[in-house]
C-alpha cells in the first residue's frame, strides 16, 4: 500500500488551519482503490472475530461501549489480518509532513509514537460522548487523524463526528468515504452522534511533546473575566480544566445519548454532575465558569458533501465573522451579555 502518496495532500494551508483553529479536513485523502480495499480488509477482519468490544475506564470500573468494536494495531496478532493498516504504523511521511510545515509540533518518529485503531460501529446507536483524545498526562497524543471508509453513507445514517471547538460553533462532519479529519488531540473536544448504519473508520494518533505545565495548569492569573482570557483558552489545552463545567449540558446530553440504560451510565452522570457542582461552588472558579458560559454559542456548521477547500474556507470564515459580530453586539464593558446568543444554522453543503 502506498500510504506515502496521501501525505503530500497535507499542505501549508491545512497546517495553517491546524494552527489557527485546531483542525482541518481533507476529502479524497485516500485513492479510491486503496479506500475500497481497506474497507474490505476491515470488514473481513471483523467477520473473522478480530475486533474487540470497545471498553473504557471510568473511576475504578471498566465499561463496555455499546455497538463499538475495534482493533488496535499494536496487537501483533492483528498485524497480519489488517496488514494494510499495520503498514501505517511504520509510515513516517505524514508526521514528517506536519513537522515540516509546523516544526514546533515536534511529532515523534517510530511506531511506538503512534497508535492506530480500526473501528467498526455496529449501527445500533453506537456513539461517543464528549471527550478530548488527550485529556491530560500521561497521554502524549498530539494529533488525531481520522479516516472514514463508508461509501454508502447517507444523511440520516448518523455517526457524524461533531467537533466542539472551545466557545466556537460546532462542526458536524459526515463520515464520508476517503474523508480525513485532522485535529489537535489536546485541544478539540469532540463527540460522535449515534449511528444507525454500520460504519468503518480508522484513527491514527501521533505523539508529541504535549501537556507541559502551561497546558495543564489553570493558574489564578488566568481566572480573569476578560476577553483576552477567552481568546487564550480557545487556543490553549488548559481549556480542558474547565471544559466540562462550561459545556456541562453538552457533556450530559452526549453521555445520555451514548450510555442511557447501560451499566455505568448512572455513575458517569453522577461523576459529571459532581465535578460541575464542585467547580461552580468554588469562589474564584465558579464566577469564571459562568463568565465563559456566556460565550457558548449554538451555531452549527454542517459538512456533509465533499467540499472544495475554497468553499469550505469561505463558509467557515463567514460563520466565524457572524459569531464575532454577535459578540461585539452583545459586549458591554468587556462582558458579553447572554442576549448575544443568536440561534442560527447554515448548511455548508448547500452549494
Ligand atoms: Fe476521540
Automatic annotation (TrEMBL):
Cofactor dependency: L-ascorbate
Any Pfam family matching the protein: 2OG-FeII_Oxy_3
SUPFAM superfamilies registered for this protein in UniProt: Clavaminate synthase-like (SSF51197)
Domain Fe2OG dioxygenase: 112-208
Keywords noted in UniProt: Dioxygenase, Iron, Metal-binding, Oxidoreductase, Vitamin C
The protein's name: Fe2OG dioxygenase domain-containing protein
Species in which this protein is naturally found: Durusdinium trenchii
Amino acid at each position: 500500500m502506498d500510504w506515502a502518496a496521501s501525505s503530500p495532500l497535507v499542505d501549508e494551508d491545512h497546517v495553517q488551519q491546524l494552527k489557527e483553529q485546531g483542525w482541518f479536513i481533507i476529502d479524497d485523502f485516500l485513492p479510491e482503490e486503496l479506500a475500497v480495499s481497506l474497507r474490505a480488509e476491515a470488514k473481513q477482519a471483523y467477520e473473522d472475530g478480530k475486533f474487540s468490544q470497545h471498553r473504557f475506564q471510568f473511576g475504578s470500573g471498566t465499561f463496555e461501549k455499546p455497538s463499538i468494536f475495534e482493533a488496535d494495531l499494536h496487537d501483533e496478532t492483528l498485524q497480519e489480518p489488517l496488514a494494510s493498516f499495520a503498514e501505517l504504523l511504520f509510515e513516517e511521511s505524514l508526521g514528517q509532513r506536519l513537522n515540516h510545515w509546523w516544526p514546533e509540533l515536534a511529532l515523534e518518529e517510530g511506531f511506538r509514537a503512534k497508535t492506530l485503531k480500526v473501528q467498526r460501529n455496529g449501527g445500533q446507536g453506537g456513539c461517543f460522548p464528549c471527550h478530548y483524545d488527550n485529556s491530560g498526562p500521561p497521554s502524549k497524543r498530539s494529533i488525531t487523524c481520522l479516516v472514514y471508509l463508508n461509501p454508502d453513507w447517507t444523511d440520516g445514517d448518523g455517526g457524524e463526528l461533531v467537533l466542539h471547538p472551545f466557545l466556537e460553533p460546532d462542526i458536524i462532519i459526515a463520515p464520508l468515504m476517503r474523508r480525513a479529519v485532522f485535529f489537535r488531540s489536546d485541544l478539540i473536544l469532540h463527540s460522535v452522534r449515534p449511528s444507525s448504519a454500520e460504519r468503518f473508520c480508522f484513527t491514527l494518533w501521533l505523539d508529541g511533546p504535549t501537556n507541559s505545565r502551561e497546558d495543564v495548569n489553570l493558574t489564578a492569573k488566568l481566572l480573569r473575566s476578560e476577553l483576552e482570557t477567552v481568546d487564550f483558552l480557545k487556543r490553549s489545552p488548559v481549556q480542558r480544566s474547565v471544559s466540562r463545567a462550561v459545556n456541562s449540558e453538552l457533556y450530559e446530553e452526549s453521555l445520555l445519548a451514548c450510555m442511557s440504560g447501560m451499566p455505568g451510565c448512572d455513575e458517569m452522570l453522577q461523576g459529571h454532575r459532581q465535578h460541575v457542582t464542585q467547580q461552580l461552588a468554588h469562589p474564584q472558579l465558579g464566577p469564571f465558569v459562568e463568565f465563559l458560559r456566556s460565550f457558548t454559542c449554538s451555531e452549527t456548521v454542517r459538512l456533509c458533501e465533499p467540499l472544495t477547500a475554497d468553499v469550505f474556507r469561505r463558509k467557515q470564515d463567514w460563520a466565524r465573522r457572524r459569531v464575532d459580530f454577535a459578540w461585539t453586539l452583545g459586549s458591554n464593558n468587556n462582558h458579553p451579555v447572554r442576549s448575544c446568543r443568536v440561534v442560527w444554522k447554515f448548511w455548508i453543503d448547500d452549494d
